[in-house]
């Protein structure tokens, strides 16, 4: 990994993935996007294991765009795993899902998701939504520094 | 106090408050903004007590814009209190501060801030940042629907 | 041991050796004296023996003369033999004394004469019988005379010997006394010297203890001073940080309300009014940049570094990409050579390249075709990274100011900037244990070189010792005044 991955896009639908990546790239919002097509790959990536054993915890992505309906391990489980470990807990996670289920919304917030967005059906709106997401999370938001991923006994978090 | 407040702006500087509201307003994002000038006021508001005893937990603001350096109770304490209580845990909180300190950014995320934005000095940058915050958090982000905050206790996740 | 101490020790040793020698010599003298005493006693004894033996001769002869008995003859002959023996031994005994020898020489004939007389008497008796013998004996009344002389002589000799002995003994006693005094004094002196040495040593120990204590004190003072300095340093950094931090809010308000004026009252203002507002906004922005750069600079001193093995080439690549927008529409050629991997903090090292490369981009603005090179070279066996541009360069006589905070070598109207970028770069390089320097020629371009500390030398993690605060303030004031002048010039 020579360049830091800025966005981890966890998306099993190739079409949605392509649209998302295009929308982000076109607005020059991001250079490095990594696509994980299921929950297992996403977790391997974030936890620096398996095929991604060469990654380090000190270089997390600035944002995880997380679909919920995933094969193998689902989005909520991925979120739970991310929030359960000090080394990954502070990574910003924005759920980007077609699901309109309230339960998913509630579970997401319960597990500490940063934000939750629904994928619009309309293509234009979809692009716009992705653009807004990119604008805020890549340009305006301050990603957590490496100090946020270290277990601290002092602060009660 | 109205239950319809969308945005709680916790900001002790009247100038910064005015400029922020102005930026939101110009982008038509300024429905129902309430300003709390210190941490105590903010907590009273969010916990429906004191001067805000007529508020209810089931109608939290869609967004809390939280400055860090506040008189009385400071921003980190507000954040900590918010995330410690089931009834307020899921409210989106965007830290909006002058602080550049990496420690503050790390601490903010560890305490469960949804996002962290540094106030730019120049007018355009500031306006743009506020606009993007408003666009994402008030238009794109899906907050928990009203009534769900207290109900979420019942869902065992 | 100091040389004086050695001298003292040598003295004491010498004295002890002297005393030892004296004692030994005294002993020898005593032995000699004892020998003399013995010797004298021998002599006296021998003289006595001689007298007795002579008396024995007399007695024997008289006895024979009277009785004619052999036993008296034997007595006489034994006595004669003894006397002869004595006379033989005496000279040996008194060999050292010429006076005695003379006396013996005087004695010998006397004794010889007497013996001869006695012998005559015996011969007469033997030959002629009793009466003749008695007659002979009576006739020889020299006997008394001889005996008297012999006795006197012997007595004299004895007295001499006794006198000699007593005077010798007295001398011996005197010299023994003297020696005793000398030994006593010598011992006293030696003890004194040793005492002195002892005190000298004590003093030296005292001095050393004092020196040790004062060293410890000055070490403690040094440590305290160092602690104070680094505390002051941290305070200064925090001060710089909080000043910069607290300045941002009002700046934002200045810029903000100016912007509001433009937005809300722009249409009501004439061109001049709008221009003034622009100035206000522009100045606030410039100050904002200064403050942000200062904040960045102060953070570097306080930040914790996280060292990783980083390929510098990839950092450069990222920065070049990020800078693409800055020189859009210009002809800029990037020549990026091979760069090594280094143990460094990637975030800060990227900042270094951002500053150096954006400077290169900025200062080549007036060139038709800008060429920016980044590569590595070796100087004195150490790997050096360089960034070279063909821009406006600068005069080498000002190179000392290059890395100072707020120092600029170009007019603000020609090239905008805060004068903090290179100071930031230098600080980062220094925190990596490296060194940065530059070479340039006016209007030909500039090259910046830097090294990074080798992994073995762990860089100094502490923030740099701040310049004297008063100097810093004055320098800053001077720079601010210079800047104001520049702005004045701009306006006119």
Task: Put the structure in a nutshell.
The complex is a heterotrimer of chains A (157), B (157) and C (492). With 157 residues, chain B is of the alpha/beta class.
Name of the CATH superfamily of chain A: Response regulator
Task: Supply the CATH class of chain B.
Answer: Alpha Beta
SSE string of chain A, helix = H, strand = E? EHEHEHEHEH
Write down the oligomeric state.
Answer: heterotrimer
According to DSSP, the number of beta strands of chain A is: 5
- Count of discrete structural domains of chain A: 1
**Could you state the CATH homologous superfamily of chain B?**
Response regulator
Query: What's the number of extended β-strand segments of chain B?
Result: 5
As a percent range, the share of helical residues of chain A equals 25-40%
The largest chain-to-chain contact, stated as pair and per-chain residue counts, equals: A-B, 35 and 36 residues
Structural notes for this entry:
- By secondary structure, chain A is α/β, with parallel strands linked by helices.
- Chain A has a single domain (7-148), classed as 3-Layer(aba) Sandwich (Rossmann fold), CATH 3.40.50.
- Chain A has 5 helices and 5 strands.
- In chain A, strands 2-1-3-4-5 form a 5-stranded parallel beta sheet, sandwiched between helices.
- The radius of gyration of chain A is 15 Å and the shape is globular.
- Chain B has a single domain, classed as Response regulator (Rossmann fold, 3-Layer(aba) Sandwich), CATH 3.40.50.2300.
- Chain B has 6 helices and 5 strands; from the N terminus they run βαβαβαβαβαα.
- In chain B, strands 2-1-3-4-5 form a 5-stranded parallel beta sheet, sandwiched between helices.
- In chain B, α1 packs across α5 and α2 packs parallel to α3 (75-84).
- Mean pLDDT of chain B is 89; it is low at 151-157.
- Chain C has 2 domains: 3-202, Four Helix Bundle (Hemerythrin (Met), subunit A); 305-491, Histidine kinase-like ATPase, C-terminal domain (Heat Shock Protein 90), CATH 3.30.565.10.
- Chain C is 71% helix and 10% strand.
- Chain C is built from 10 helices and 7 strands.
- In chain C, the strands form 2 sheets. Chain C has a 5-stranded mixed beta sheet with strand order 2-4-5-7-6, with helices on one face. A two-stranded antiparallel sheet of chain C has the order 1-3.
- In chain C, α2 (70-93) packs antiparallel against α3 (98-128) and α5 packs antiparallel against α6 (271-302).
- Chain C is rod-shaped, with a radius of gyration of 62 Å.
- The interface between A and B is large, with 35 and 36 residues.
